[in-house]
Amino acid sequence: MKVLVIGNGGREHALAWKAAQSPLVDTVYVAPGNAGTALEPSLQNVAIGVTDIPALLRFAQDENIDLTIVGPKRRWSLAWSTRSVPPV
């Protein structure tokens, strides 16, 4: 399973780190990530900002992401809830 964690804070680092421990998860991407996630060998930072919704959607579709975890609070979560993502 491929996982995308969106955000650049400690919360997102913890979520990504824990997701990477699952035997069901093959790859964990963090967009944009931070210095801490860059040091984790099991995580891959992606240089896409949390506000660049179209680029994040493209990345998720291009990489066949199975699960997306939106870390930032309400403001960005609301932006994601209004986007149309084709069903898998």
Task: Summarize this structure as a short list of keywords or feature phrases.
88 residues; alpha/beta; Rossmann fold; four-stranded parallel β-sheet; 4 helices; 4 strands; 39% helix; 22% strand; globular; PRibGlycinamide_synth; PreATP-grasp_dom_sf; PRibGlycinamide_synth_N
Strand content: 15-25%
Rounded mean pLDDT is: 88
Helical fraction equals 25-40%
CATH topology description: Rossmann fold
- Number of discrete domains: 1
Using the 3D structure, state the CATH architecture.
3-Layer(aba) Sandwich
Descriptive notes:
- It comes from Klebsiella pneumoniae subsp. ozaenae.
- It is a single chain.
- The model has no long low-confidence stretch (mean pLDDT 88).
- The chain is globular, with a radius of gyration of 12 Å.
- Strands 3-2-1-4 form a four-stranded parallel sheet, with helices on both faces.
- It is of the alpha/beta class and 88 residues long.
Topology, element by element:
Blueprint lengths: L1 E6 L2 H11 L6 E6 L2 H5 L3 E3 L7 H10 L4 E4 L3 H8 L7
Parallel strand pairs: 1-2, 1-4, 2-3
EC number: 6.3.4.13
Protein name: Phosphoribosylamine--glycine ligase
GO biological process, one term: purine nucleobase biosynthetic process
Summarize, please:
By secondary structure, this protein is of the alpha/beta class. It has helices at residues 10-20, 35-39, 53-62, 74-81; strands at 2-7, 27-32, 43-45, 67-70.
